[in-house]
Amino acid sequence: MLRRKTIIAAEDRPPEHRMARTLGWPHLMALGVGAIVGTGILTLIGVGAGKAGPAVLLSFAIAGAICACAALAYAEMATMMPAAGSAYTYSYAVLGEVFAWVVGWSLILEYSLVVSTVAVGWSGYAVGFLRGLGVAPPDMLTHGPVFSGHLFDGSFQLVSMGVNVPAIVIIGIVAGMLMLGTRESAWLNTVLVAIKIATLALFVFVALPHFDAANLEPFMPFGFGKTMGADGVERGVMAAAAIIFFAFYGFDAISTAAEEAKNPERDLAIGIVGSMLVCTLIYVVVSAAAVGAVYFADFSASPEPLALILRNIEAPGVARIVGAAAVIALPTVLLAFLYGQSRIFLVVARDGFLPPALAKISRRGTPVRITALTALFVSIFAGLVPLDQIAALANSGTLCAFIAVALCMLILRKRAPDARRPFRTPAHWVVGLGAIGGCLYLFVSLSRLTQISFLVWTVLGLIVYFAYGMRRSLARG
């Protein structure tokens, strides 16, 4: 269970398992920005405002600071071990096989549910855009099942049935793009990221003149820590931060591109750290403009909060532009995370935990089989699970991965202090412990249902490992 994997250089792998190096640091920066700036600011800003009120600004700051610590740890580990697999690979090389399995199992949760969440968010904007044009799709085909009540007190029940068809369709389209080629997908992603940033700049330009300090009062209506409201909803700055945390991660998808980067030792660090800095600035400005322009309660329940804010300040034309841009540009998040998930599955298959045939690379240099399997898997969640429940559960998997990467960095600083580190995390003990402590606090701030669901998922993963994975591992020799 504690055996550790030796990292094999991409060039030393069999030809059928070798991916083409086609990505430079601009592609990786665009991949990171495309992954980070998406559902979090376009849709979850409403969910966060509903939990924290105007203090959602503070929630963004807290989540961003924790993610910054994790990003620095990722940058060091990714440049030391430029191999696909992200936190799974680092854990396998530093902590041992059983820990790597748990982290990989958590990454499956993270990436799969992020893709599903973003697809659901895209669906909300797409349907809103169509309705603005006078086209009204059948309601039951635009959202998954709707539930009410609580799972543990006997009030949990199905309110209405439905299948989110637009979410399933967009996953299929993005998966098809990835199968065509990594470089082609990267260039299209870069163009769409530019459209997305221009759209957010337009929102700020229009909304900021309507900033009213009265909309920020009371600033912290639900308190700082997690509290249970009379309606059974957990609120507070930290409850919002635990959800908004979803808005910041995405840089970890860059580390899965290690075997396709032209110069991984340089490009990975620039992509990870650079994308975090750019996105933090974007989030602070956009969220300030949003909560200042309209009172938070007026947009907190909307699936398209930025477009709703623009309509409320009598800018319907700009609202249609934002809605259209979201429909066009949100798939960049899908592309980044579906890309990352397929690479995680690829490495897991290489290690013997999945059928090795799934790790085969096509003539175009892409893992077609594993990408198709990943798309099928996440489509089930996107079509049948509500947005807020998906996002919270995805966060728990990410928190586990971030803790593992920070721990790996600290262990290697003690175990191999003189090892070559193309990127060295500054104040590594402060950053590493900050990432670990912050992620643990965010996990405690998640809802009880999310915490229990994650623990159940982890136990299920351990059962699969002992019953199947441990015997299949190629590291056994």
TrEMBL record:
InterPro entries: AA/rel_permease1. It is found in: Membrane. Keywords: Membrane, Transmembrane, Transmembrane helix, Transport. It is a multi-pass membrane protein. One of its GO terms (molecular function) is amino acid transmembrane transporter activity. Its main location: membrane. GO terms for cellular component: membrane. This is Amino acid permease. It comes from Sphingomonas sanxanigenens DSM 19645 = NX02.
